[in-house]
Amino acid sequence: MNEDPKVNVSGLPQDYLDASAVENISDAVSYRVPVVEAEPELVVNPWDIVLCTSGTLISCENAIVVLIIFHNPSLRAPMFLLIGSLALADLLAGLGLIVNFIFAYLLQSEATKLVTTGLIVASFSASVCSLLAITVDRYLSLYYALTYHSERTVTFTYVMLTMLWGTSICLGLLPVLGWNCLRDESTCSVVRPLTKNNTAILSISFLFMFALMLQLYIQICKIVMRHAHQIALQHHFLATSHYVTTRKGVSTLALILGTFAACWMPFTLYSLIADYTYPSIYTYATLLPATYNSIINPVIYAFRNQEIQKALCLICCGCTPAGVSQRARSPSDV
């Protein structure tokens, strides 16, 4: 009976007052105790995963070609030097895609972004230039068939390799040396941190090289048709041999140019008309086919070559397949 009765002078129900007291205590506790926010989860763009996977396949496939040519001393003709240059460029391109994925999600910084972008630009530029060099070599092997196997041809090949790699390295160094859009986003292209002017130069250069390759392959096709016609006349079977040889040559050239254009033309044209304000999905959708060209190159230029086929079989199983002809594939074979 000594307890003092608690008087409710507010006129409100006691349950309501108890709930309000609990709320006030909770507010006070939450005010004094700092709230720990959960760290945002790392969200990986599926397109980046696809590009990284493509880069892994490119690296593995072209590493085989590089090892075969480097390991086999007999593969030192100008044709194999150019095929090796193409495989090395595509290998670096694949590694660039992998490193770009790693740096984009684990080591994010402006320096790493510039370095990986420069590596990708340099390697893909060297890849396209190597394709042009192979086209020039095939044309010279047909047009100057009698003098092709000479020291002058080897020297000219080394000059081409020096020029194409020097040019490609310079193009890759441009973003690193300051020609980028990190300080002014309004100048960005569809591929950040490349500027709009940078991608325009790369795209126009690609169109020029594609036009040059097209012209050279047209001349190659004419030479092959003329040679096939002359051989057919000498052996008196014009209707069959001439048709088969011509069709095979034209089909091969169409495959080479068609694959090259289908892979690179969408991204080239898109880079000319678009800028950083366009949705990134368009950039990914046009850039991905361009990487497929580096996957297809070893199949077209390396694994179809009989000398490389024999070298690959010797490395893998120590034998030469019976289906491979003993005749070496000449540079003039298209």
List the SSEs and their pairings.
Layout lengths: L13 H19 L13 H26 L6 H28 L4 H34 L7 H26 L19 H40 L2 H36 L6 H23 L3 H12 L17
Helix pairs in contact: 2-3, 2-8, 3-4, 3-5, 3-8, 4-5, 4-6, 6-7, 7-8
Subcellular location: Cell membrane
Pfam family, one: 7tm_1
Main location: membrane
Overview of this protein structure:
With 334 residues, this protein is mostly helical. The chain has one domain: Rhopdopsin 7-helix transmembrane proteins (Up-down Bundle), CATH 1.20.1070.10. The chain is 73% helix and 0% strand. It has 9 helices and no strands. α2 (46-71) packs parallel to α8 and α4 (110-143) packs parallel to α6 (196-235). The longest helix is centred in the middle third of the chain and has 40 residues, at 196-235. The radius of gyration is 31 Å and the shape is globular. It starts with 13 loop residues before the first helix and ends in a 17-residue tail after the last helix. Residues 1-12, 35-39 and 325-332 have low confidence and may be disordered.
What string, H for helix and E for strand, traces the elements in order? HHHHHHHHH
- If classified by CATH, what would the architecture be? Up-down Bundle
What is the CATH H-level superfamily? Rhodopsin 7-helix transmembrane proteins
Count of individual helical segments: 9
Structural class: mainly alpha
Broad CATH class: Mainly Alpha
- Rounded to the nearest angstrom, the radius of gyration is 31 Å
Characterize the largest beta sheet: strand count, sense, and whether it forms a barrel: none
